[in-house]
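Board notes (copied after class):
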Amino acid sequence: MAISLSLVLLVGIILVFMIRNGRIKWGPALVAILFGFLLASSNIAPDIQKFLDSAAQAIADINP
């Protein structure tokens, strides 16, 4: 849960910076946000969460 919340905040911050710098306009940003909400309520959401969890675990397992 902590990883997904951190990832949501990171992606949200990136989206705000992209809007403020003019890299993405408000229209496409709104579409991306709505797509995220719809995707979260779909049947594929648990599979995406499992993938993100396994990717985070793989990154955590890397030895420096």
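Comment from the instructor: The CA atoms of residues 50 and 56 lie 10 Å apart. The mean pLDDT is 83.
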